[in-house]
UniProtKB/TrEMBL annotation:
Gene name, Swiss-Prot/TrEMBL: rffG
Residue ranges annotated for the NAD(P)-binding domain, each copy included: 5-327
Annotated protein name in UniProt: dTDP-glucose 4,6-dehydratase
Domain of life assignment: Bacteria
InterPro entries on file: dTDP_Gluc_deHydtase, NAD(P)-bd_dom, NAD(P)-bd_dom_sf
Catalysed reactions listed for this entry: dTDP-alpha-D-glucose = dTDP-4-dehydro-6-deoxy-alpha-D-glucose + H2O
Classification via Pfam families: GDP_Man_Dehyd (PF16363)
UniProt keyword terms in alphabetical order: Lyase, NAD
Cofactor dependency: NAD(+)
E.C. no: 4.2.1.46
NCBIfam families to which the protein is assigned, alphabetical: dTDP_gluc_dehyt
Length: 356
């Protein structure tokens, strides 16, 4: 039985990967998560008693703790997802993004290198370090430009994107200099069940059903490629086992949409599902409110995922229309979880500690 160490496994994408692995793999899974505002054990409540699953509440900035984890659990594969990941938060307070997304990655790479250099034979042959990144490292894309490929130049615009770009460079350097067997994936915007409520799609759903304004930056003409999170989990599973060492793979949904069109689509789904309107609201669309754009807002991201399709045979299974309806239905049925997450985030911002 192989052992897979997933950092950030209580977060949105990490928990989707762990749920996928429990169902579709025979591996043992070690979830390394410090359970900040974006990590919640409820995301894994259906499998937390599985004997193949173990949670370790550890911060990747803590090098001695990381060394202990490698020694204790002896992982065959590390899938690194733990990161500060919200652009708006990175603009308001970039320091923690530098600390976690750069220094934390350095610590994890060094712990992995120390572990790898002591391996021999088959254990050394099967070890992998899979770093999960974002398309935002490539920066802004003009409306008529070709989508990002694995050879696109890096041009990050936000502190978040710059920190992830820095991490990508560190991973490549550790592969080139030290021979650490690494893989990198860069994904487009994810959405789906268990998405943190401050992100665009869950925010629109929750604000709409609560009768609150639905904020849209500027005219909402920014374009993103949308990837259903369970499709992403399938891609990560494929790469971590079959990816070519030293390679990177772009993972996208082939679903480019303007932000304003994403918002109106969600409102359309809510109307079609006949979700009751809040008091004083005639149409969910009437809640859409245009607000001042954020600094350095990239106009367009788009992913060329042909490399992973050709080499590993992965393709997304969900269309945006099917995925967004599944997502809306999930959030309509999980209001208690959303409220608990929002309350925990408020307590953490106020220095009271999170309990959700």
């Amino acid at each position: 039985m192989q052992t897979v160490m997933v950092t950030g496994g209580a977060g949105f994408i990490g928990s989707a990967l762990i749920r996928h692995l429990i169902t579709h793999d025979t591996c043992r899974i070690i979830n390394v998560d410090c359970l900040t505002y974006a990590g919640h054990t409820a995301t894994l409540q259906d499998i937390d008693q599985d004997p193949r699953y173990q949670l370790e509440q550890v911060d990747i900035r803590d090098r001695p703790a990381l060394d202990r984890l490698f020694s204790t659990w002896q992982p065959d594969i590390v899938v690194h997802l733990a990161a500060e990941s919200h652009v708006d938060r990175s603009i308001d307070g970039p320091a923690v993004f530098i600390d976690t997304n750069i220094v934390g990655v350095f610590n994890l790479l060094e712990a992995a290198r120390h572990w790898y250099e002591g391996l021999e034979g088959e254990s050394r042959e099967r070890f992998r370090f899979h770093h999960v990144s974002t398309d935002e490292v490539f920066g802004d894309l003009s409306p008529d430009a070709a989508p990002f490929s694995e050879t696109s130049s890096y041009a990050p615009s936000s502190p978040y994107a710059a920190s992830k770009a820095s991490a990508d460079h560190l991973v490549r350097a550790w592969q080139r200099t030290y021979g650490l067997p690494t893989l990198i994936t860069n994904c487009s915007n994810n959405y789906g069940p268990w998405h943190f409520p401050e992100k665009l799609i869950p925010l629109v759903i929750l604000n709409a059903i609560q009768g609150r304004a639905i904020p849209v930056y500027g005219e909402g003409h920014q374009i993103r490629d949308w990837l259903f999170v369970e499709d992403h989990a399938r891609a990560l599973h494929r790469v971590m086992h079959e990816g070519v060492i030293g390679s990177s793979y772009n993972i996208g949904g082939h679903e480019e949409r303007r932000n304003i069109d994403v918002v109106t689509t969600i409102c359309d789904v809510l109307e079609r599902l006949e979700v009751p309107h809040p008091e004083g609201v005639t149409r969910f669309h009437d809640l859409i409110t245009h607000v001042a754009d954020r600094p350095g807002h990239d106009r367009r991201y788009a992913i060329d995922a042909s490399h992973i399709e050709r080499e590993l045979g992965w393709r997304p299974q969900e269309s945006f229309e099917s995925g967004i309806e599944k997502t809306v239905r999930w959030f309509l049925n999980h209001g208690d979880w959303c409220q608990g997450v929002e309350n925990a985030d408020t307590r953490q911002r106020q220095g009271l500690g999170a309990t959700a």
